[in-house]
């Protein structure tokens, strides 16, 4: 009998996907199809939750099949992330216009990412204090105890490492291993390796222009091929979002969310405030925040539902170049660096809030100016090398709490609401990298304002 219900649920999903395909054939815009998929997924997932519950065999079996579409789509995006990061950074050096300002562009992108992370940490601290969050009264169940046992193992190495040793971990000793994403810091390691290749290209260009031109053509060709692969995968976005948000809505523990509702609300208040900071920065740069929201929304929606900054990388670059008018070089730099450096949500707000919550348990006054300043600095420095996939916030929190000599158990106590909060954190991470790209383009004169100002074009 269970199999029959599972088959019915799969049939409904296929019917909804057929509707999205029909919209595509009718040339309905990409953003409208994405939001239609989001709405359908919310309704369908909630219906499944009401009928079968979160832990039934029918729900588990249904979601297992749905994951072929949802997780399959995310895996396809992750498949092209490392090649795209490598080729994007090297390609940034081979573009003549960018090489004239390479130092300035790198400084601006990294500076904006780290600066906004410091601001997000301050906002996270303010939100935790404003809502009176206290980690002392959180209780652990079986799932939380199991999670904490794993975290104790995971943090052992981090606790024993000094900040200089953590910085050394960012360097690529084996770039081929890092291209497989084997380490949490693999993304930033690939960026560093690609930057060395790019600088070597500049040296060769001065001494042997013929070989340099040949290399540039190879990189441009590879970039075109990879972006074509990305385009093919992005066409699946509405279907992936439909399956992912259906799973999230159907399997969420609403009782646990209500119990930890205060923390969830405080987190989203901080996330929204930081997003407003992004819009204010654009406003100060004399760029329309309304246009930014309209054009960034499909990309941020995917980041929200998928919970992966790395998987959103292709959409991030596409939005910056095609919709905002940012030059390819800057867009590639900002999007790639944004995977590992200065993630406003995962590496900024979240660790700062947890530190404030557990500080009293360690006998520290969380309102002390010295504690707040130290925490903001540690958060900003520790934001290097945060993994751009689901779980990066946990890694960031472990580093920050360990450096500050604070208890790490609270990270495991929030396991039940982690997915819900991580959705907002990931969207903010992506917004931060796009904001860095747009602002850098504006400062360096590599932003086409007419592209930024014009409305979105309809896509097939």
UniProtKB/TrEMBL annotation:
Domain of life: Bacteria
TM annotation in the entry: 6-22, 34-52, 72-93, 105-129, 185-204, 225-245, 265-285, 371-389, 395-415
Keyword Membrane: yes
Keyword Manganese tagged: no
Compartment list: Membrane
Keywords carried by this UniProt record: Amino-acid transport, Membrane, Transmembrane, Transmembrane helix, Transport
Pfam families reported for this sequence: SDF
Main location: membrane
GO MF, one example: L-cystine transmembrane transporter activity
GO CC annotations on file: plasma membrane
PANTHER family for the chain: L-CYSTINE TRANSPORTER TCYP, PROTON/GLUTAMATE-ASPARTATE SYMPORTER
Topology with respect to the bilayer: Multi-pass membrane protein
The protein's name: L-cystine uptake protein TcyP
Annotated source species: Neobacillus mesonae
Family membership: Belongs to the dicarboxylate/amino acid:cation symporter (DAACS) (TC 2.A.23) family.
């Amino acid at each position: 009998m269970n199999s029959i219900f599972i088959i019915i649920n799969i049939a409904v999903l296929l019917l909804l996907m057929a509707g999205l395909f029909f919209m595509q054939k009718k040339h309905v815009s990409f953003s409208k199809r994405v939001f239609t998929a989001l709405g359908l997924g919310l309704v369908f997932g909630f219906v499944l939750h009401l009928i079968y519950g979160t832990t039934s065999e029918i729900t588990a079996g249904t979601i297992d099949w749905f994951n072929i579409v949802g997780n399959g789509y995310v895996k396809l995006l992750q498949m092209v992330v490392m090649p795209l990061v490598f080729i994007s950074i090297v390609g940034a050096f081979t573009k003549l216009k960018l090489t004239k300002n390479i130092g300035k562009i790198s400084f601006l992108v990294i500076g904006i990412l780290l600066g906004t992370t410091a601001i997000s940490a301050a906002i996270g601290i303010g939100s935790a204090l404003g809502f009176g969050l206290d980690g002392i009264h959180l209780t652990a169940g079986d799932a939380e105890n199991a999670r904490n046992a794993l975290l104790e193992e995971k943090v052992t190495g981090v606790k024993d490492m000094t900040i200089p040793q953590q910085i050394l971990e960012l360097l690529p000793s084996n770039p081929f291993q890092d291209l497989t994403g084997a380490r949490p810091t693999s993304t930033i390691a690939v960026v560093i390796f690609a930057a060395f290749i790019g600088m070597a290209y500049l040296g060769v260009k001065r001494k042997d222009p013929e070989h340099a031109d040949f290399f540039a053509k190879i990189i441009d060709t590879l970039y075109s091929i990879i972006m074509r692969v990305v385009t093919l995968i992005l066409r699946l976005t509405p279907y992936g979002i439909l399956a992912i948000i259906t799973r999230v809505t159907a399997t969420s523990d609403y009782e646990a969310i209500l119990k930890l509702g205060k923390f969830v609300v405080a987190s989203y208040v901080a996330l929204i405030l930081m997003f407003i900071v992004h819009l204010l920065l654009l406003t100060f740069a004399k760029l329309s925040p309304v246009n930014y929201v309209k054009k960034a929304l499909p990309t941020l929606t995917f980041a929200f539902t998928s919970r992966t900054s790395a998987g959103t990388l292709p959409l991030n670059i596409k939005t910056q170049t095609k919709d905002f008018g940012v030059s390819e070089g800057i867009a590639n730099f900002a999007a790639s660096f944004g995977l590992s450096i200065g993630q406003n949500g995962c590496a900024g707000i979240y660790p700062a809030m947890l530190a404030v919550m557990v500080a009293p348990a360690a006998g520290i006054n969380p309102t002390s100016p010295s504690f707040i300043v130290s925490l903001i600095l540690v958060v900003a420095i520790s934001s290097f090398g945060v993994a751009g996939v689901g779980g990066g916030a946990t890694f960031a929190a472990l580093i920050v709490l360990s450096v500050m000599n604070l208890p790490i158990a609270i990270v495991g106590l929030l396991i039940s609401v982690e997915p819900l909060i991580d959705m907002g954190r990931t969207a903010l991470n992506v917004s931060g990298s796009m904001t860095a790209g747009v602002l850098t383009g504006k400062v360096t004169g590599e932003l086409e304002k007419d592209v930024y100002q014009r409305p979105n074009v309809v896509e097939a």
